[in-house]
């Protein structure tokens, strides 16, 4: 009745309540099945309708079973995909949180290093000012000494 592969395929149903016809999309039907489907449903039109209805019932049951299996496979695939999405979503969220924490720590380290550099620069500026004052004192002292020596 259809392909012999193990691949899953999408199957959809539509029911027409007025004509009691079920439309199955995504299922291959043989020409024999299509011919039987085209036959009128009344038993008076065909002499072998008893045989056909019994065979049709078996084929209908088999078709329903295959369709149910296909639907179950499709649902299992969807569930598997949903589970994968949830798993990878959680993994992605954990990675994002870890990345944010790492970034926050790096920013804090950088701020601390910047503050340390600023304080170090202030200390050096004060030391430089002190040296400059000392040099000016020495300069003044030596100029005074030179002036005394020149007076003598």
From TrEMBL:
It comes from the Eukaryota. It is found in: Mitochondrion inner membrane. It is a lipid-anchor. The keyword Mitochondrion applies. GO terms for cellular component: MICOS complex. InterPro entries: MIC19/MIC25, MICOS_subunit_Mic19. Keywords: Disulfide bond, Lipoprotein, Membrane, Mitochondrion, Mitochondrion inner membrane, Myristate. Residues 29-61 are annotated as: Disordered. One of its GO terms (biological process) is inner mitochondrial membrane organization. The keyword Lipoprotein applies. This is MIC19 protein. It comes from Casuarius casuarius (Southern cassowary). The gene is Chchd3.
């Amino acid at each position: 009745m259809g392909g012999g592969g193990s691949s899953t395929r999408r199957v959809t149903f539509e029911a027409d309540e007025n004509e009691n016809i079920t439309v199955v999309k995504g299922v291959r039907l043989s020409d024999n099945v299509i011919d039987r489907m085209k036959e009128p449903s009344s038993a008076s039109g065909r002499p072998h309708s008893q045989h056909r209805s019994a065979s049709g019932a078996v084929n209908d049951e088999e078709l329903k079973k295959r369709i149910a299996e296909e639907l179950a496979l499709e649902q299992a695939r969807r569930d598997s995909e949903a589970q994968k999405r949830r798993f990878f979503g959680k993994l992605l969220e954990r990675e994002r949180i870890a990345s944010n924490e790492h970034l926050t720590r790096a920013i804090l380290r950088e701020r601390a290093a910047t503050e340390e550099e600023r304080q170090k620069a202030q200390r050096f500026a004060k030391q430089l000012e002190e040296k400059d004052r000392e040099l000016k004192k020495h300069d003044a002292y030596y100029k005074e000494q030179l002036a005394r020596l020149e007076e003598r």
